[in-house]
Write the structure tokens for this entry.
Amino acid sequence: MFRTTAAFLVLLAPLALGCGDDERSSDDDSQGDGGSAGAGGTTPEPPGGDVLSVTVVNGTFGPLQAVGSTDGVVIATESYGGSINAQTLANVPGVFLARIDEQGEPNRVWQWERQTDYSVSFARLWPINDGSVVIGCSVTSLSGAFYRPVSDAVATPVSVQEPCFARVTGAGTLVAAGELPAPPTWNNKPTGTDSFVLDETGGAIVLINGPDPDSGDPEVQNIVLARYDAAGALLGTAFYGSGQDELSAHDLVAAEDGARFWGVYEGSPDLGTGPLPAPGGSFIARTDGSLTIVEVTRVGGRIASMARVEDGSIYLLVDRNPDPIAANWVVQKHDAAHALLWEEPIELGSNAKIADDGKSGIHFAAGGTERLSFGRMSSDGEIVWRKDIPGLWHTPGELGHDAAGALLLTFQFHDTVDVGTGPVTEDAVNGSAMLLRVTR
């Protein structure tokens, strides 16, 4: 069992500001997602893309994670001092928690200083209706990590083990925690909590990509799935991989009583439904409640991101170009049985991802050396709106929506950028990140 301490609780208020170049489809949300005006109908949802609020975090050396909850928006990252907007933080390496008021300014900040030479990175955040948040993390030290509150120099350091996830309140208090064991044949645990999803009981399904020593090659990865109850107790595990074929999996989402995820492979591994075609490629998979994989579908091209919407449909962002430097993106929509419904090309930078929009469509975002792009696509593949902002941007750290349906987008940036609210300059020494909240 371990301890962990890191989350941000952020409540952001509308600023009603625009940003970047604007592209909207002529039909807006009429393509399957919006309502219809007139007698007996519903009022159409207004066009999206307007920036509601901006929070700038200086001193980050990891991606800024964010998730909407009933209490606002929760964000988390590693930091080295720096600031949140104009408020200066203690100049120590570690992690911090902050509550942001309705104007986007911090009114309470907690910091934890790391005690040895290691770091914790946050893989995923997930909200719970009581206002607490589940976090997943990875630790660079095999012996774990130790943090001490900056405000309490005599406090006993809190231990964080690897790999890990925990449930914490908005104030950072530990509610429950779990630790994933290594498979019986592995000498070391898998490295990092890559993804997880909460089930209907408040427990969690955790996805890990772990090294397989049976292959003799530390670069060969296999898949580990584990289910926990709401108190953090381990209920069961499942391990997939032959020790010869390389596997990795990503973007775990809830599906019926099990989960879905996408992955890539080399060779012809068998995930329990028959060997996948050699020499390699991408796939989407579905498990039952026992975490047994019951369906695997190979997908042509390189999957980069996946989203599952409220009707059970699956969206995939797929690169058709074998050269990762020059991506050729398409968005695919599959039904719940993985049958392809449609495919639409989309022009995005090399670092891109998608997420459900809280209805039946998706949001998309991409960074790159020339611009940041983000927008919304309807359930039949039409671009509802799109923004393109010049500058040098990293891959989006998080893409999701809050309880009100607004788009949440985090990213690290370089030099000076402007999302429509005025220029912001990077902390050139320790790095900078930004959280945008945008109308859906």
The chain has no helices and 37 strands.
